[in-house]
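TA notes, week 10

Several of you asked for a full example with nothing omitted. So below is the full record: structure tokens for the whole chain, then the designed sequence directly under it. When grading your own attempts, check the secondary structure regions first.
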């Protein structure tokens, strides 16, 4: 056999072997890459959550789960809303200037789309503990006669008002986080989708 024929045969075998190797690598890589995608269950857990708030009574708080976090939905009455305007000098960020703590549509005095409904992630911004709801004002809360109502984290003593704004000089550095949400239809809030998006 001539040298030229042997070189051509080697080249043909090299190309064929390389092509088979690449095809085999592709067949192994596709399932491997697919296995790194989140499962349907994981995608559903991170998806939006609809909550019917039409039957939520004044002063009542509902807790739902979204992305493994507790979401508080509080229906505030006129007295609760009025109390929010009296606390500015006691709060660390009364005007909610830390942008990452709420969407732009909740950067207002009530930290909400509709003044009477607060939607907040129920985790203390200090170490992620779940604060206690101490919604009633005064001594019945166990926090003293001057307590206007809000949330108290017993782990390290952080306090938040009825809009989730943190009090000054306490361990929690920022206000409670307001998650993206919108009113999908009358009385139904969709958590996980920003207002104005469809």
């Amino acid at each position: 056999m001539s040298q030229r024929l042997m070189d051509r045969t080697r080249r043909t075998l090299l190309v064929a072997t390389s092509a088979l190797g690449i095809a085999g690598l592709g067949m192994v890589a596709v399932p491997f890459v697919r296995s790194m995608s989140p499962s349907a269950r994981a995608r559903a857990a991170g998806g939006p959550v609809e909550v019917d708030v039409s039957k939520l009574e004044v002063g009542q708080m509902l807790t739902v789960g979204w992305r493994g976090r507790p979401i508080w939905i509080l229906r505030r009455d006129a007295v609760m809303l009025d109390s929010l305007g009296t606390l500015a000098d006691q709060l660390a960020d009364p005007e909610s200037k830390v942008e990452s703590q709420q969407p732009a549509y909740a950067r207002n005095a009530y930290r909400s789309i509709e003044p009477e409904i607060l939607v907040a992630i129920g985790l203390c911004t200090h170490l992620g503990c779940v604060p206690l709801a101490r919604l009633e004002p005064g001594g019945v809360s166990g926090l003293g006669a001057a307590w206007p109502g809000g949330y108290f984290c017993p782990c390290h003593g952080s306090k938040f008002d009825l809009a989730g704004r943190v009090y000054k000089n306490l361990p929690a550095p920022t206000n409670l986080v307001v998650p993206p949400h919108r009113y999908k239809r009358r009385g139904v809030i969709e958590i996980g989708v920003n207002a104005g998006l469809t």
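The helical segments are 3-35, 40-46, 78-84. Use that as a sanity check on your answer.
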